Amino acid sequence: MCPMPIGFYDDWVKSADEESKHFNLVSDCLENMGSHYGAMAAHAGMWRAAEDTKDDLPGCLAVVPMVLEARGLDVTPGMITLFEKAGEQPIVDALNVIYAEEVGHVGYGSKWFNFLCGRDNLDPRDVFHDLVQTYFHGALKAPFNEEKRAEADLPPDFYWPLADDLPPRPGLT
Ligand SMILES: [Fe+2]
Prior knowledge:
By secondary structure, the protein is mainly α. The chain has one domain (6-31, 45-162). The protein is built from 7 helices and no strands. The protein has helices at 6-32, 45-52, 57-85, 89-119, 124-135, 146-151, 156-159. The structure holds fe (ii) ion (FE2). Residues 15, 19, 69, 102, 105 line the site of fe (ii) ion.
């Protein structure tokens, strides 16, 4: 594969820095509640996707930021509401930081995925659908956070056709 521009590395170093901050925010919340990271079972979907796509950069961008991190944008507002109702303000504050910064991570995915498709003169929507069907097992789950996905340059015609638990929206194939 041709070398990537320096901005590609800048974006992902920034993302990694923010992810390490997110880990510390969540870890602190757990410890303040008398628990710790690793005390509860968690899925390894992100790690597994990174391993599955380690030799396929467009595949990695399609699945890790543009599917899995985008899913975080869908579910985090509901989590924030739950913790607000429970009066857990430190957790609400941590989740608000994570929520705001994850929009950027999805945006980096979209930006560099589109860059790679443009460099090879490929239709990014078609390539996205092919790669998600190759590496992501199962349908995408609606409802989607269309507003935040749009902020991250992830258009509805990328993700709606891959959601099979609701009828397709008119005009989208
Ligand atoms: Fe992220």
